[in-house]
Amino acid sequence: MTTTNPPAAVVPPLQKKSTAAGRVRQKLSSRVATVIAIVIALFWTIPTFGLLISSFRPANDIKTTGWWTFFSDPQLTLENYNEVLFGGSASSGQLAGYFINSLVITIPAVLFPMAICSLAAYALAWIDFKGRDWVYIMIFALQIVPLQMALVPLLRFFSQGTEIFGIQLTPAWGLSDTGLFIQVWFAHTCFALPFGVYLLHNFISELPRDIMEAARVDGANHPKIFRSIVLPLITPALASYGIFQFLWVWNDLLVALIFASGGGRDTQPMTVRLAELAGTRGNEWQRLTSGAFVSMVVPLIVFLSLQRYFVRGLLAGSVKG
């Protein structure tokens, strides 16, 4: 007499725990999302490609024919770039000097907010003090305030200084080159603080609490924790914020026109000069094609060098799990 053992119960395979980050990653990697990304990239790249071709075409061809006619009658020249960078007349270009001014304005206007925002975000995330949540809410709410509302008060502050009860607390910086650069740095730093504190706070607040508690047990104070633990861990967020701030300051025209135009070509950035390249009648717009790509060089280098940190820092604090 033989007996048969009952079939073993089939155990379903373990399913991977679905998380918010996994669902977002799955949607972004689908075929539909890929096709949409390709279409957007084409619509974004084709005009830029046409502008690049136009920057190497003769001025007369740019004014009379479209960039696509280059393939039937290719003619290349570097005259546009030579005129824009080293033009002999005051109206033709001379962007080389303005390029240096843009670097002098942009680099400090990026480093100052990064330093202040990282310290403020750490304090709001890991230091307990009365009213901390209300301070964070007020900083977050400042993001919706248009920067145009602060232009007149800042101009008055820079020109007259601050005086309370007849006591001059801060001097007027005047119209010297150094004073104008300080004005632009101060303005860009003020306008960058709300978004920077918000972005870095989201990242710093999600750091493991066990690491912070272990550092305190070992006797580390807040400066030591911030320098040795927090700064290395928030590198992606700092890189993302640095890219945003760099692009904003480098491409800014409004703040530069108001705070840096008093010194002429000694303090004006490239954006101010680019707005003047087309001429008083707008008939020299072929200069804008080469001028645009001259202004693109540094932002492209910055973005490509920090690209690996960009998405990680941008999504910091947006999903959990």
Describe the overall structure.
Helices cover 64% and strands 2% of the residues. It has one domain (81-314): Orthogonal Bundle (MetI-like fold), CATH 1.10.3720.10. The protein has helices spanning 20-28, 31-55, 59-64, 79-86, 95-126, 132-141, 151-160, 177-204, 209-217, 222-233, 235-250, 254-259, 270-274, 286-305, 307-314; strands at 162-164, 167-170. It has 15 helices and two strands. A two-stranded antiparallel ribbon has the order 1-2. Helix 4 (79-86) crosses helix 14 (286-305). Residues 9-17 and 317-321 have low confidence and may be disordered. The N and C termini lie far apart (57 Å). The relative contact order is 0.13. It is mainly alpha-helical. It is globular and about 75 Å long.
Key phrases:
mainly alpha; MetI-like fold
Short recap of the structure:
This protein has 15 helices and 2 strands. The protein is an all-alpha fold. Residues 9-17 and 317-321 have low confidence and may be disordered.
